[in-house]
């Protein structure tokens, strides 16, 4: 359901506990948000979720303390900031394929909308603003070794460029009293109520279950920084709740570890083999765009004591338990793949428009009636 914008009651802080907040989570029905919002509720926060609900209503829709606002982040309702103490901004296109599908929409959602949110925070007096950025900003750099937050960045492509624009917008707002926290997130993995099978570890599990084969391109020697989606949600909570002196104006890499693609394929194959389901690993051609970089996440651990312990192997085991017996129709459903779901919704738009006409009552006198 979509509630009105006056749900909240006073959330008094209990002795010895973190301050209860009213938090606006944009994109809160997505892959990360589906885990983040229930965690925030469990910690006593009240949450207003702004989302287009592309994948349907989230599983937590009827939980006490949550309010759903079905809206586009590019067209925000006037009262959406009423009573809000902090913002966690997850909305927007989430990878290169979706961003390249419509670069203009990507720029509006991932760049312009962030700038608008910053302006509205200033007007509403909201200070804490946690932003889900991306480690893809490091992708084009030629620096060697682990890349920390001080390493040079070289964003390439519509997605990374829009994230960089948003970072710069947020950091400029520090002088105006905003407390932005930028989280450069590694590639996520693991189960979520709004599942995605278009991420490398999750995709390998899906292919292993469906085909018994995994294709590793170019030998799979490319490095990728990774993090569990569940651990990523915990990092967001830590940055929402942390004292300003520890996080305001800071950038943190959110990284569990760095893995070669071939090692990820082997981890998936080994898990399936232990269950009596052998998986063959095949070599494929080198892709046209090769992503190969490693990031360090020590700053987040040292500054806030945040642990991101979940390994890809542990997530693979969990994914196999959850989806090992799923029918092929479930694993291949377009709703688990961002670009496929976008294309499907776009193709169905004329049909929905026609349905509006079908269900409109006819005027008297039409077709000889009345």
In terms of DSSP E residues, the strand content is 15-25%
Q: Under the CATH scheme, which architecture of the domain at 22-195 and 226-256 and 290-311 would be assigned?
A: 3-Layer(aba) Sandwich
**Helical percentage:** 25-40%
Terminal CA distance: 38 Å
Can you write the helix and strand succession as a string?
Answer: EHEEEHHEHEEHEEHHEEHEHHHH
- Characterize the largest beta sheet: strand count, sense, and whether it forms a barrel: 7 strands, parallel
Shape: globular
Q: How are the SSEs placed, and which strands pair?
A:
Blueprint: E1 22-26, H1 33-42, E2 46-51, E3 66-70, E4 86-89, H2 96-101, H3 103-124, E5 128-134, H4 157-172, E6 179-185, E7 187-189, H5 200-211, E8 213-217, E9 223-228, H6 229-241, H7 244-247, E10 250-254, E11 257-260, H8 261-274, E12 280-284, H9 298-304, H10 312-323, H11 328-331, H12 338-358
Parallel strand pairs: 1-2, 1-4, 2-3, 4-5, 5-6, 6-10, 7-9, 8-12
Antiparallel strand pairs: 9-11
Account of the 3D structure:
The chain has a domain at 22-195 and 226-256 and 290-311: Rossmann fold (3-Layer(aba) Sandwich), CATH 3.40.50. 38% of the residues lie in helices and 17% in strands. The chain contains twelve helices and twelve strands. It has helices at residues 33-42, 96-101, 103-124, 157-172, 200-211, 229-241, 244-247, 261-274, 298-304, 312-323, 328-331, 338-358; strands at residues 22-26, 46-51, 66-70, 86-89, 128-134, 179-185, 187-189, 213-217, 223-228, 250-254, 257-260, 280-284. The strands form three sheets. It has a seven-stranded parallel β-sheet, sandwiched between helices. Strands 7-9-11 form a three-stranded mixed β-sheet. The longest helix has 22 residues, at 103-124. The two termini are 38 Å apart. The model is unreliable at 1-16 and 366-370 (pLDDT under 50).
């Amino acid at each position: 359901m979509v509630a009105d914008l006056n749900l909240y009651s006073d959330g008094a802080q209990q002795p010895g506990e973190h301050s209860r907040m009213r938090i606006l989570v944009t994109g809160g029905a997505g892959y990360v948000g589906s885990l983040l919002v229930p965690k925030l509720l469990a910690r006593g926060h009240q949450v207003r979720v702004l989302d287009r609900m592309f994948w349907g209503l989230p599983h937590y829709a009827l939980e006490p303390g949550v309010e759903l606002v079905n809206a586009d982040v590019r067209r925000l309702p006037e009262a959406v900031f009423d009573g809000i103490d902090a913002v966690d901004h997850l909305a927007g296109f989430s990878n290169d394929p979706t961003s390249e599908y419509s670069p203009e929409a990507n720029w509006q959602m991932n760049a312009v909308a962030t700038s608008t949110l910053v302006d509205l925070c200033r007007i509403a007096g909201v200070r804490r603003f946690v932003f889900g950025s991306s480690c893809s900003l490091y992708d084009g750099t030629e620096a060697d070794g682990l890349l920390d937050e001080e390493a040079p960045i070289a964003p390439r492509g519509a997605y990374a460029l829009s994230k960089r624009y948003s970072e710069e917008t947020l950091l400029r707002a520090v002088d105006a009293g905003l407390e932005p926290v930028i989280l450069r997130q590694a590639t996520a993995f693991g189960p979520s109520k709004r599942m995605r099978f278009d991420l490398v570890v999750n995709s390998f599990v899906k292919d292993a279950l469906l085909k018994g084969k995994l294709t590793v391109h170019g030998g799979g020697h490319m490095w990728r920084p990774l993090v569990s989606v569940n651990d990523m949600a915990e990092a967001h909570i830590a940055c929402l709740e942390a004292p300003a002196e520890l996080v305001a104006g800071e950038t943190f890499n959110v990284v569990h570890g760095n893995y070669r693609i071939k090692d990820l394929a082997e981890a998936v194959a080994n898990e399936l083999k232990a269950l009596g389901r052998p998986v063959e690993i095949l070599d494929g051609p080198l892709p046209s765009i090769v992503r190969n970089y490693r990031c360090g996440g020590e700053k987040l651990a040292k500054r806030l004591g945040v642990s991101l312990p979940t390994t890809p192997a542990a997530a693979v085991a969990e994914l196999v338990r959850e989806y090992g017996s799923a029918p092929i129709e479930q694993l291949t459903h377009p709703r688990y793949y961002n670009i496929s779901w976008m294309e499907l919704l776009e193709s169905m738009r004329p049909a929905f428009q026609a349905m509006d006409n079908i269900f409109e009552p006819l005027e008297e006198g039409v077709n000889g009636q009345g």
